Amino acid sequence: RHIAHNLAIREARGEMWTSVDSDDAIVPHALERIRELWLEIPETERSDFLSVVGLCRDQHGRSVGSPFPVSPFDVDVRDYLFLHRQFGGEKWGAGPMEPMRRFPFAEIPGTHFVPEGVHGLQMARAHRRFRFVNEVFRIYYVNDSETGVTLTSRREIAKGAPGRVHYYLWLLNNEMEYFWRSPVPFVKAAAMLPVTAHYAGQPLRDIWQKLESPSAKLLVVAAMPLSASLGAYFGLIGQRK
Fold first, then answer.
1. 52-96 residue pLDDT tens
2. Which of 67, 139, 149, 217 could lock 25 by a disulfide, CB 3.0 to 4.6 Å apart?
3. Chain centroid to CA 238: how far?
4. 122: closest CA among 102, 107, 95, 97?
């Protein structure tokens, strides 16, 4: 997917971008409405915004994810990702093409999956804010057995391991300032890093050398018991399959 994304961005000629998965639909006039909302941002401030983002509903008309306290709701992208988890769930929107071209996905050999987190956090350092609105733009189909994908099996972990290693290293090396306010993503990254490194065929000593801060290294060491438990869990999944 990340390779296709980069190709699409290189070939695109529009001023704004969005992505639509195979199990998505867009409500009528969503793109026109997003453009209107984008143009409502004062021109002198637009370079500070990454995108305009709205809500989703499922194919039965039920809301997917939580609404925002006000609309519009402008928030720092990194603060939203780490600190505003109460507004989680599916969201969807569009933004200017320029940051997408500046920050393509890493094209890592040997993997079919690179988490979107690195891509989004890199862009957030240059374009700091989201504009959220309580308007539905996307239909998110649930319980679709033909197109639904899970990345929790050992086989999928192994296939995407190099991309996951890249994401966990980037998060631990660049965003640890958020650890005390939002520890869960960092504990998960520290615990999963040795597991995914194993499946990626990357020696732990090489991973250790790529960790840039003492705090990141300390967290990985502290999470080793959890890493061992997760490694055993994925091993059992493989045996059952």
1. 999 999 999 999 888 999 999 999 989 988 988 778 788 999 999
2. 139
3. 26
4. 102
